[in-house]
Write a structure and sequence with these properties.
two-stranded antiparallel sheet, 2 domains, Oxidized Rhodanese, domain 1, alpha/beta, 6-stranded mixed beta sheet
Amino acid sequence: MKRIKNRLVFLIPAVVVGVGVLLVFQINADWAGERSVYAGGSRDILSTEAYRMWQSDPESVIILDVRTTAEYALVGHPPMAYNIPIATWTGAFDPSRRTYTMQNNPDFLDAVEKRFSKENTILLICRSGFRSGIAARLLMNAGFKRVYNIVDGFEGNPPRSKNNFLKGCAGESGWKHSGAPWTYELDPQRVYSP
């Protein structure tokens, strides 16, 4: 009896840990394949999935980078991405928010409608998924039918590790860190010109 008790002392925690690990893997697997509905019908996808979508049909799948022209040029961008900024940098510093201010690009929607069909599949990207989420809502409201928000953006979210030298900067996820191609080269056919 004592021998059985000793085995149970080790067996029960092992079973509990094993079941917990299986549940975590199942939850992560379910989440990874899940696309949550966002902004009245657009979908959230990761950069790796966005790149696969573009590879499957590069003629009708459009990658639209909604960051500023400076971000597009100086931080890099997917080589197949067009740039139409949803907002522009003002150069004015807001001390209460500790950041420079942005202003909406009043030509954003017109520029997108002139360049792309409402039937195209449009994958929107910004730095980390926030501005592209706003752009997704605008495009869906304007009648674009297949709009996706790349939620991890180009640079991804700031590192969580306190010991990471990139703390406070983008750098652990996103298109740039996914293995998908990116470049600093500017294609005159893809850059924004007001």
